Amino acid sequence: MVRLTRTKVTKKPATTKAVSKKQSAKTAKVNGVKAAAAKQELEKKTVKEEKPIPAAKAPSRLRLSAIQRKHKHSPTLLPLPSINKVDCEVFAFGTGDMCELGLGPEKASTVKRPRLSPYLSKEIVDIAVGGQHGLVLDSQGRVWSWGGNDLGALGRDTSGHEVLKDMDADESDDEDDPKLNPAESIPALVDTDQRFVKIEASDSLSLALTAEGDVWAWGSFRNSQGTMGFSDKVKVQNRPVKIEELSNIAAIAAGRDHVLALTQWGTVHTWGDSENFRLGWKSNRSTLSPRELGLKNIVYVGAGEFHSFAIDTDGKVLAWGLNQYGQCGILGQSDNAAVDGPTYVDALDGKDIVAVTGGEHHSLALSKDGTVYSFGRYDYHQIGFTTKDLPEGTVRDDKGNPRFLPVPSPLSLGGEDDDEKLPKMRFIACGAHHSLIIDVDGRVWTWGFSSSFQTGHAEEDDVETPRKIMNTAIKPIDVKMAGGGGQFSVVAGVRKEE
After folding, report:
1. Does the record carry Isomerase as a key word (predicted)?
2. Domains in the chain: boundaries
3. Is there a contact between 215 and 252 (Cβ–Cβ < 8 Å)?
4. 38, 210, 420, 451: most buried, per Cβ within 10 A?
């Protein structure tokens, strides 16, 4: 009997070549998956590395500000600010008990006529004068400061340099020529690397504009109750900081404790002390943050200590703020103590006004043809008229004494015996109770309260009408700009060719 057996059939092993091919395909598939995953991971990393910088860290100019968003489709009326193309020398005069003159600690605190600053170069392109401090801007865009620094207006540290009086010294020694704080009486650079093209000064606040239209500021605001502060979070700002709420600013103007900022689109922002409606709002609520005023088509802003001005595209002048001496140039209000919002100055219509500014209680306006219009308080001859030459519209007291002139009136030299007529002017500036104007030939004319020699005429009596400053230091200078403080003045110009 034949036993049948089941033969186990085994598969023929694959060749080495076939196995290698299969393994390669499998490996390739696995590697392909890994490669795809690796590629995807790499792409994720690449996207992660290339994602935009977080908004909080992005440069400010890459993001539209609130002002830019609002005016995204609006036509611009004004160019961004640019630096002056002049290289000036700086002169100071008046009384500098608070180091306002910037002539150094060894100099007399009273300078009766313009004196050249020995500490500033001949490359100054802009000046700004506050109540008790001064600023200049050099051709490199750097700001230099001097004067009182109690509320940080100088933008740098001046502590530790105070001059103490020797109690054992002879009482008569240096009594008339006290030594001043060298850190405040000598101009020094403001503590910042930022470069600027324009500067402005309030009483205890300083401001500067960049070529991009950004506003930087330092110091603090004050009001009748004391120190208001710099912002809602900062009492005194000792170093320059950028005001983030503002952009595309073409010009700024500052009163004693309020500021106006004019945008490229002709709108105006104001902030600071709102007493007497100087901010232009119907409410008297002060603010330390810029807030837009309801004005359009504005091409110029100016300020007095407690009042404000603007000029629109039609050449019309608007004014608001304190007006008890007619310094706004506005009549017919039920209460002349203050103008509670932007109001047209009818007396300046058709006069082609290009600039308006003010002191504490008086104002000046400059027309395109070089005529200067003056209005406001008369007590210290701030408005530049003699008693016999006061224009029609002058307000007098019960005894017939002149009090103030509320109607803007053209300035003259006054009198019948003057050999020289008042020439055409190109620049106007006001101190607290005195005025400075510059004619087309670069000569400075001043008048008003002069007990601190702030008019530069070496006399303490008030100067009634515009008088040309004549002294050796300033005679060869073509003066380009001027500014007045509480008891001092600063002018700057270029030396005339021989």
Report:
1. no
2. 87-157+178-493
3. yes
4. 210
CA distance 491 to 479: 7
Residue with tokens 């407690």: 306
Residue numbers of the chain with a pLDDT score lower than 70: 1-62, 107-108, 162-178, 332-336, 414-420, 498
Tell me which residue of 151, 295, 174 sits closest to 230, measured CA to CA.
151
CA 26 from chain center: how many Å?
75
Please name the helix (run of DSSP H) or strand (run of DSSP E) that holds residue 68, with its range, or none: helix 66-70
Residue type, 259: V
8 A C-beta contact, residue 155 and residue 128: no
What distance in Å separates the CA atoms of residue 35 and residue 115, rounded to the nearest whole number?
80
Neighbour-count burial for 142-172, b at 16+ CB within 10 Å, e otherwise: bbbbbbbbbbbbbbbebeeeeeeeeeeeeee
pLDDT of residue 13: 43
For residue 127, what are its two tokens? 């000046």
Between CA 430 and CA 409, with CA 351 as vertex, the angle to 5 degrees is 55
Architecture of domain 87-157+178-493: 7 Propeller (2.130)
pLDDT computed for residue 415 by the predictor: 56
For residue 442, what are the CA distances in angstroms to 180, 370, 423, 437, 476? 32, 13, 11, 10, 10
pLDDT of residue 88: 98
